[in-house]
Design goal:
With about 350 residues, the chain is an alpha+beta fold. It folds into 3 domains: about 5-80, Arc Repressor Mutant, subunit A; about 90-130 and about 230-345, Beta-Lactamase (2-Layer Sandwich); about 135-225, Heat-inducible transcription repressor hrca homolog, domain 3 (Enolase-like, domain 1). The chain has helices spanning about 5-25, 30-35, 40-55, 70-80, 90-100, 105-120, 175-190, 195-205, 205-210, 215-225, 240-245, 245-250, 250-260, 265-270, 325-345, and strands spanning about 60, 70, 125-130, 135-145, 150-155, 160-165, 235, 280-285, 295-305, 310-320. A 5-stranded antiparallel sheet has the order 7-3-10-9-8, sandwiched between helices. Strands 4-5-6 form a 3-stranded antiparallel sheet. The chain starts with 6 loop residues before the first helix and ends with a helix.
Length: about 350
């Protein structure tokens, strides 16, 4: 037994899914018989396929056609039948070369990595960077940004840079700002933004801060800026790969729904939300996705870490018929690589 299927049922389902992934066409019993070296006759395979259909793993689009896997069939395939393979050496080398390019900003590195991953997988690639507040700080500084504005610039360990504008500040001199920067960096060393905010609130309660108006001002300004929360950055590459999938090309309304989803940041974040829980690969198939109205896509995603915290997630989005045996190791390897690169930048 494999899962809830006997050996023959599992073999037939695996071959149906493999063939459907390759062709996007309903699969007939004769095709499966040939793939199995004719160890089972087409008639026997038809009976097994009928049983699989009754169990909800296969569907028959038309009475004269072969079968196609259902969402439940794909889920069974991923959970029990998928032949996990190692990522091919040339693909690993390409990803490592991209990750090793010196001088590339964190923002540009993510764009390039997601573009490469999209090209290697022929799917759309999404990267969500949503945990700035959990990333260790490398430096913190205030800069004059206008007559009445100050910019708080946070540089994270991974190379990410975050800007927070503080308005209605006119009286700070250059010397004041330099002194504030020295003070804030003494507080900020080794902390995340969320830890720094807690530290600032503690400092504001201390007697010594009350007697130094400039330091009190620095703490108030920083607390205001850090109170705004951390923005979520979303990078999407390879939307055009969706246009090449036959199941979407033949259904314009389905294609419009999917392309519209790519334009909404909140939808993308929700699709990859589970992956932020850790580095375990997450596979959401069809109706399992947390976003209604997208039953025809699958998401393969993983979180990537920076130190002890999950800093974001990376995923591939494509048809339910995507090649999971290739896509899963691609996402796993790239997530680990991203975490390692940001850890050592």
């Amino acid at each position: 037994m494999i899962g809830s299927l006997d050996e023959r049922g599992a073999q037939v389902l695996r071959h149906v899914v493999d063939d459907y992934i390759e062709t996007a066409e309903p699969v007939g019993s004769r095709t499966i018989s040939k793939k199995m070296g004719q160890t089972l006759s087409p008639a026997t395979i038809r009976n097994i396929m009928a049983d699989l259909e009754e169990m909800g793993y296969l569907a028959q689009p038309h009475t004269s056609a072969g079968r196609v896997p259902t969402g439940a069939g794909f889920r069974y395939y991923v959970d029990y039948l998928l032949a996990r393979r190692r990522l091919a050496r040339p693909e690993r080398d390409q990803l490592q070369r991209m990750a090793g390019e010196a001088g590339t900003s964190a923002d540009e590195l993510v764009r390039q990595m997601s573009r490469l991953l999209s090209n290697l997988s022929h799917q759309a690639c999404v990267v969500v960077v949503s945990r700035f507040s959990n990333q260790p700080l490398r430096s913190l500084s205030m800069l004059r940004a206008g007559v009445d504005k100050v910019l708080l610039v946070s540089v994270m360990q991974g190379g990410w840079v975050e800007h927070r504008l503080i308005e209605e500040e006119t009286s700070l001199t250059g010397d004041d700002i330099e002194r504030i920067n020295n003070y804030l960096n003494e507080l900020a060393v080794g902390l995340t933004l969320s830890q720094l905010r807690a530290r600032i609130l503690q400092e504001m309660k201390k007697e010594k801060a009350r007697y130094d108006r400039l330091m009190q001002r620095a703490l108030l300004l920083s607390a205001r800026a850090l109170d705004e929360g951390s923005p979520t950055e979303v990078y999407v590459e390879g939307r055009a790969n969706i246009l090449e999938q036959p199941e979407f090309v033949e259904d314009v309304q389905k294609l419009k729904r999917i392309l519209r989803a790519f334009e909404e940041k909140s939808v993308i974040v929700r699709l990859l939300d589970k992956a932020l829980e850790g580095e375990t690969i997450q596979v959401s198939i069809g109706a399992e996705n947390p976003v209604e109205g997208l039953p025809d896509i699958s998401v393969v995603a993983s979180g990537y870490r920076l130190g002890e915290a999950t800093a974001g997630s990376i995923g591939l989005i494509g048809p339910v018929r995507m090649d999971y045996s290739h896509v899963i190791p691609l996402v796993q390897y790239t997530a680990r690589l991203l975490g390692s690169v940001f850890e050592h930048r």
